[in-house]
Amino acid sequence: MEGLVNLLTENMRGVLSRESVVFIISMMPILELRGGLLAASLLDVAYLKALGICIVGNLLPIPFVLLFIERIILFLEKFGPTKKIAMLLRRKVEKKQASIEKYDFWGLTLFVGIPLPGTGAWTGSLVAGLLHIPLKKSVPAILTGILMASFIMSIVSYGVLGNIVG
Length: 166
Known about the structure:
Distance between the termini: 29 Å
């Protein structure tokens, strides 16, 4: 992920403002808030400003994913070349289904909040949408997960813990 963030940051640096680069990276699947905070630290964007930009950027696509992912997957399943992608996404959701359903709100929150490869708000929204988790439950869980991830990634990207303790 760091290599991709570096590549995007370098290519967008002279074209867009530092804040715009951070915002765009925060909206991207896979990179999300984690990539946005890494980009912000590379671009020397002030921590609190970067944190706000990353949270908003990471949140922006989530309602669209929650509302439309089922229709998108059904559409992709109708065509040979995209059917494999749709089935891959469904299998990914099925793998996560038991643990998310077992722990309900906190299962989805932890899935979004613990910054590991293949987790995050986009994937959490994909899972919530395909499992038909109601918006009144999924949106707060995803938001809580984003806040959790922002805390963890703040420590990693900006060394916030070192600044507080030291």
